[in-house]
Amino acid sequence: xxxxxxxxWIAPVATAPLxxxxxxxxxxxxxxxxxxxxxxxxxxxxxxxxxxxxxTRLMLGALTTLGGRSEATTDGFLVHPLSGSRAEPATVAxxxxxxxxxxxxxxxxxxxxxxxxxxxEAIRRRPxxxxxxxxxxxxxxxxxDGRGAPPFTVQGDAGLRGGKVDxxxxxxxxxxxxxxxxxxxxxxxxxxxxxxxxxPSEPHIAMTLDMLRRFGATVAREGxxxxxxxxxxxxxxxxxxxxxxxxxxxxxxAVATGGTVRVKGWPKHTTQxxxxxxxxxxxxxxxxxxxxAGLTVTGGSxxxxxxxxxxxxxxxxxxxxxxxxxxxxxxxxxxxAHLRGHETDRITALATELSALGAEVTETDDxxxxxxxxxxxxxxxxxxxxxxxxxxxVLGLRVDGVRVENPATVGKTFPEFVETWTxxxx
Length: 426
Ligand SMILES: O=C(O)C1=C[C@@H](OP(=O)(O)O)[C@@H](O)[C@H](O)C1
Ligand SMILES: C=C(OP(=O)(O)O)C(=O)O
Description:
It comes from Amycolatopsis saalfeldensis. The protein is of the alpha/beta class and 426 residues long.
């Protein structure tokens, strides 16, 4: 195991219906928003039980590069505000983290020197053009090669004037979230009018607005227009919820095996897209019971084929697609064309890998058609995509010999995934 890319993990088969409780780590989306908002606040924020993974380390690293500072505490980090006096040219490492690539460029305008943004080969294919255009209209000076993807350089200007801007956020909701999260630090705040097709991932937009409010910002939404007033943010303590999208493969395991899985600490109220599993899983024959301890899912005797528009919850697609390979009949997933610009082109990757193991899966422009068939073992390529490791694990529950390539790539959001999965299976 000297080279993680040559490494394979044989996903374990469930020999009986599961009966397990699991705890998943903190939400990536909440953790990285909390860090950004803390960096823009007027006083330090104690971020409690955050996710500790590649993407969140990249975010803390980016904020340090941009003039911030964080100290480990017993259960997280104390995140200090950015100092506006950063004067040396610097490079922000993006890895393949969409949240770091989209949320931090606006913060680079607060310093006095240029910042280069670059990362993995994969992030150089992920869209960011409409966000860079909007930031330029709000006063930023940004140099790029015109491809609308990293690398690019933001010139330090000691802040942005802000104001009104049109934005096409149809390729990623993160463009809109980026402008709203940074909005309180702009001289005039920001008013964003969405143009073009509706953005995906509506729950992540709601998460952005909710967290801005918790940090004391004044935000308003009227249809497709959003306003954030200039404010000095403040939130002495922020407790991060468990990641409900990371919980998805564990709940899918209950459904796939006709067993029971309890996810501890499921929040009663949340903006996370993973909460939609409480609606989806009953449609797949499962029973879902929330209680004070969390959420319990028990799979039914069979899984019906379904038609699903996953536009609002696109990041759940890999795990849901894997689960639907065990359905009684064909399924169709629509509304997720934007997944072609995720960690990898997830539509093509899922069609290729699920088909390679025997399912009949075809791509459409904006989704997948899945016709279940008898599956067999083989290599499941993961394209440096954490959620493909999770999808492969779900398949492996009922298929002998699923060899998951590069399982360590799951460390983007859950470094202990393989251990937690294995112990769930007893
Ligand atoms: O804002 C966020 O934290 C996220 C928004 C979504 O991005 P897209 O809107 O690009 O799908 C989601 O898929 C991603 O995992 C996290
Ligand atoms: C799309 C995802 O990640 P990112 O934050 O890199 O966009 C994801 O986690 O499914």
